[in-house]
Amino acid sequence: MKISLTDREADVIQVLWDHGPSLVSEVRGRLADELAYTTVLTVLRTLEAKDYVNHDEEGRGHRYFATIKQQTARKSALQHLTNKFFNGSAELLLTHLVSEQKLSPEQMARMRTLLAERLGKEKP
Predict the structure, then answer these.
(1) What whole-number distance in Å separates Cα of residue 12 and Cα of residue 24?
(2) Does residue 19 sit in helix, strand or coil?
(3) Residue 67 gets which letter from DSSP?
């Protein structure tokens, strides 16, 4: 499933992933940027039109909830990034991450462990 989110949409749906079903005012209050109520509502309606969010009626308002999993969105975004900037090569992406980022020894150790586990699963 290809998922496409603008930065603003990603901020809004992150609130739903972090805090669960929320009213527009609750989403608005949890965003880092101060946005108008109508702006947040518009973003939620756009996400709903994309089938990434849905809502339940609650009194006079709507309680919005994410219909896509965060992991699914991450996977789609990473695939897009890999295809767009690294010629579809996960190896180039990983090489870039390791060489360009200031990773702590603990982060490097976790990456080594993950790679070793992955290699172990692929052995005949």
Answers:
(1) 10
(2) helix
(3) S
Q: How far apart are CA 28 and CA 12, in angstroms?
A: 8
Instruction: Name the token pair of 29.
Output: 């209050």
Q: What is the 3-state secondary structure (H, E, C) of 11-68?
A: HHHHHHHHHCCEEHHHHHHHCCCCCCHHHHHHHHHHHHHCCCEEEEEECCEEEEEECC
Q: Among all chains, which residue has been given the structure tokens 């150790």?
A: 109
pTM as predicted: 0.81
Per-residue pLDDT of the chain (124 residues; tens, 9 = 90+): 899 999 999 999 999 999 999 999 999 999 999 999 999 999 999 999 999 999 999 999 999 999 999 999 999 999 999 999 999 999 999 889 888 888 888 998 998 899 899 888 765 5
Measured distance CA(26)–CA(116) in Å, rounded:
43
Nearest-Å Rg of the Cα atoms of the chain is 19
HSE at residue 90, side-chain half, CA atoms within 13 A, is 5
